[in-house]
Structures are given as C-alpha cells and as structure tokens.
UniProtKB/TrEMBL annotation:
<keyword id="KW-0678">Repressor</keyword>
<dbReference type="Pfam" id="PF00440">
    <property type="entry name" value="TetR_N"/>
</dbReference>
<keyword id="KW-0804">Transcription</keyword>
<dbReference type="InterPro" id="IPR013572">
    <property type="entry name" value="Tscrpt_reg_MAATS_C"/>
</dbReference>
<feature type="domain" description="HTH tetR-type">
    <location>
        <begin position="10"/>
        <end position="70"/>
    </location>
</feature>
<dbReference type="InterPro" id="IPR001647">
    <property type="entry name" value="HTH_TetR"/>
</dbReference>
<dbReference type="Pfam" id="PF08361">
    <property type="entry name" value="TetR_C_2"/>
</dbReference>
<protein>
    <submittedName>
        <fullName>TetR family transcriptional regulator</fullName>
    </submittedName>
</protein>
<keyword id="KW-0238">DNA-binding</keyword>
<dbReference type="InterPro" id="IPR009057">
    <property type="entry name" value="Homeodomain-like_sf"/>
</dbReference>
<dbReference type="InterPro" id="IPR023772">
    <property type="entry name" value="DNA-bd_HTH_TetR-type_CS"/>
</dbReference>
<keyword id="KW-0805">Transcription regulation</keyword>
<feature type="DNA-binding region" description="H-T-H motif">
    <location>
        <begin position="33"/>
        <end position="52"/>
    </location>
</feature>
<dbReference type="InterPro" id="IPR036271">
    <property type="entry name" value="Tet_transcr_reg_TetR-rel_C_sf"/>
</dbReference>
<dbReference type="InterPro" id="IPR050109">
    <property type="entry name" value="HTH-type_TetR-like_transc_reg"/>
</dbReference>
Length: 206
C-alpha cells in the first residue's frame, strides 16, 4: 500500500511537471500562475504545493528533468592526449547538437528558458546556475582550443578564449533560432555547416 502511495505521488508530480512545461510554453513563465497549472492538470492548488514550494521551485524541477545543451557539453568526456583537438571538439559539438535535435522535451524546455522566462526575483538562483553553465561550457571549449593551438592545429596567435566564445555563440544562436521556429532549417545540417566553416576558418587564419 505504501509503495502504491509513493507511485501515485510520483505520477502526480510528473503530471504537474508535464502540465507546467506545456503551460509555460504556451503562456510564458511570468504570465503563468500555479492556479493555471492546477486547472490545466485538473488538480487543486494544494496538490501543487504538496510537491513544490512555489513557481520557481516548480520551474527548477522542470529544468532538472532534461540536460540542457551547455550542461551536456560540460558532461562529455575530456580530450585524451592522443586525440586530435579540433576533430574532437567538432565531435563534441555535434553530439550536443544531436541531443537537442532528437529530444522534443529538451527543445521545449530550452525554448522556455531562452524565450519565455524572466530570470528575476525568485528565479535569480536559476539564472545564476544558467550563467555558471555557460561559463563552464566556454571554459571547456577554450581548453580544447588551447590544446589545438599547442598541437599546431591552429595558428599560435589564436586567442583560445575568443575562439571559444565565438563557437559557443554560434551554437547557442542556432539553438535559440531552431526552437523558436523548428521548420526554419534542419538543425543537424546547419550546425555541421556552421561549425565546420568556423573551425576551418580559425585553422586557416594567418
């Protein structure tokens, strides 16, 4: 009986999160109330508060269900000494692109974060974690670029930090536009074209 109660509680929690994701996507986070989510899920407001302290807590739990692209980039294994840095960086980048391209939930959550959430007030801690993930991603890319410079794959005068910020901006921009309008372009094809041209451009700089 206890197990059934726990299972039912988990089912209710998942229902709330699924519903919040849908309502946030439709109305935006700031315009969505817990009453809106409760009504859409056919639950009471009390049921929402049983699982979540407030809207920010619910939003954070929704984020925890997916691995956003920048977190995915950091989570990929580090470069091994015998690997070619630029080739590995390309593989790493395309892996992150594929993760977003093939997962509708990650697309929806990324769209909410990028286009439908105001990171103010109770959402500031979430904003801070998002910024930390961006900084961690850029640092990871910078390390790979520096390895490419050290191995002679990039000109010695290449600024690894600037190159990393540029690649991050390209990928992040593709993601932001893709989730805004998925029919605008094929994400995998466009990412491959963009990343290859960026890396080749850096390698051929004088």
């Amino acid at each position: 009986m206890v197990r059934k109660t726990k299972e039912e509680a988990q089912e209710t929690r998942n229902l709330i999160l699924d519903t919040a994701e849908a309502v946030f996507s439709e109305k935006g986070v700031s315009r969505t109330t817990l009453n809106d989510i409760a009504k859409a899920a056919d639950l009471t407001r009390g049921a929402i508060y049983w699982h979540f302290k407030n809207k920010a807590d619910l939003f954070d739990a929704m984020l925890q269900r997916v691995i956003l692209p920048m977190d995915e980039f950091i989570a990929t294994p580090d470069l091994h000494p015998e690997q070619q840095p630029l080739a590995y960086l390309r593989t790493r980048s395309m892996h992150v692109v594929r993760t977003l391209a093939e997962d509708p939930r990650t697309q929806r959550v990324f769209d909410i974060v990028m286009h439908k959430a105001e990171m103010v007030d109770d959402m500031l801690p979430i904003r801070d974690r998002h910024l930390e993930a961006i900084q961690g991603c850029i640092q990871t890319i910078e390390t790979d670029f520096q390895a490419a410079i050290d191995k002679g794959e990039l000109p010695a005068n290449t600024n690894a930090r600037q190159a990393a910020i540029g690649l991050h901006a390209l990928i992040d921009g593709l993601f932001a536009n893709f989730v805004l309008s998925p029919n605008l372009f094929n994400l995998m094809e466009q990412a491959e074209f963009t990343i290859d041209n960026y890396l080749n451009g850096l390698a051929n700089r004088k």
